[in-house]
Amino acid sequence: MAYDILIASVPVIGSYFYTYALYKIGLIRKTLHVNFWNFIIGLAFLFSGGAGFLLLILMDMGIVIPITPQLFYGHVEVGITLAIVTVFHFHCYWKSSLEMVFMRKKRTRT
Amino acid sequence: MKKRIIKALNAFPKERLIGALSSIPLIAATTMSGACGASCPYGLVNDPYPGQCPRYLDLNSDGICDLSQLAATAQVDQTTQTTQNSNAQPTSSAQGDDDEYTIGTGDVDDQGSGNVSTITDPNSPGFNGDQTALDATNYHVLPISILLLAGYFFTHYLFQRGILKPKQHKRIWNILVTIGYTGTGITGMLLTLMVNLGIRTAYNQGITFWHAELAILMVVGTLIHIHIYRKPFKRMFKVIFGLKSSKRINSVKSPPSSK
Q1: Closest Cα partner for B217 from A102, A49, A83, A99?
Q2: Which of the residues A26, A82, B17, B32 could staple to A44 if both were Cys, CB 3.0 to 4.6 A apart?
Q3: In terms of pTM, does the model score above 0.90?
Q4: Has residue A108 been placed in a domain?
């Protein structure tokens, strides 16, 4: 079984750069760009995390359902998307993430 | 209200109710695999060494996980039958085309002829093959989830009492969720690449184990993250789906207009 990494990653990367370009040009507001990608990460998490959790519980209980291989495949494919969108999430909140991790104070303009 | 429910239940024919209830286990039995404990939990077929999951089990030493082999169920059934027969005879053997099982009541003793491999009686004290597999698949879902939730309630309590600053509270959980995502992402990508490139190392099972462990941190951490940032989370739906007019949302952040 081979997983399609490009199918799961290229459309997402393309879409991110597209909405980022729209925001930079000024066609959409930053809140819409950020919230749209927050929604996408939420969806990816819901599917990938949900499928993973379900597989884990089924495996612990020793139950095999007919859609287990498809569920596993979908979990991996959406997991690739989730990993990439997580990077974008950090990009969206880059400044606040750095402040949070290194406890840096906001610079105030004088 | 109670009377209405009782009336409705009485009106419903009991025979139908019993029939419907008795069909549930039948449906469950047909949709689930017949061999719950003896088939691959991921539904993999002929998974070679070292296997994609910690339940890798190779009793016949053919380099393929017994659970993923199509004939695993039949072999297990055959083995069970042989074990039952072995109560009458001290040692018996079941022979197949490629694989041979020798079920005995004694200790491990390699026959050394071709593919013949001997497995010890599961009842004997020396048998620990399946036990090892079970230990390896214990992902500690509940203990980790409970620990994380207890930790969150504790920090939330400290934050509410003013002992912990809101920023510190957020920082702790943001770092934990970052660790969860980074760990799960890296191990997941590693596993995907290993499967795609056909790389099979002894570390595969360890990576899978840590992928699952960190995924628990990721899932619970994300739920906590959503709870911490619940206000922006609710606003997200308003912004995307326009549940409230976008002008109103924008007017909050935009500078006040001159009146």
Answers
A1: A49
A2: A82
A3: no
A4: no
